[in-house]
Amino acid sequence: MKKHLPIIKLSLLTLGLFSGTAQAHFPLMSCWFESDKVACETGYSDGSKAVDYNVNMYDYDDNLIAKVNTDKRSIAEFSKPETDFYLVFDSGHESPVEVDVVEIKDK
Which domain of life is it from (predicted)? Predict the structure, then answer.
């Protein structure tokens, strides 16, 4: 039994190392209107912030209208355009988050 103990310890250690990677977190974004601006807060399902990430604004013809980086609060602010639009936060994890203008409300 003693000669198997190092193998058991190594197995448990390896299992412990990979258990953290099994806990996936996915990107989140919520947006709201503030007078003539559109603000979006980004982050992850584990509660962490997404600082210095791009949030892109597109019109319905898929033309890039604006591109803003999130600030230290994980917030991206845009000037409110005259056209309909949608916003995309692609953190490189899982799938990008899209928010359509019809989903955005005043805060």
Answer: Bacteria
Range of the domain at 59: 24-100
What predicted TM-score, i.e. pTM, was given to this entire model? 0.76
Q: Which of 59, 48, 60 is nearest to 93 (CA)?
A: 48
CATH code for the domain of 78: 2.60.40
In a domain, 51, yes or no: yes
pLDDT digits (tens, 9 = 90+) for 68-99: 999 999 999 999 999 999 999 999 877 899 99
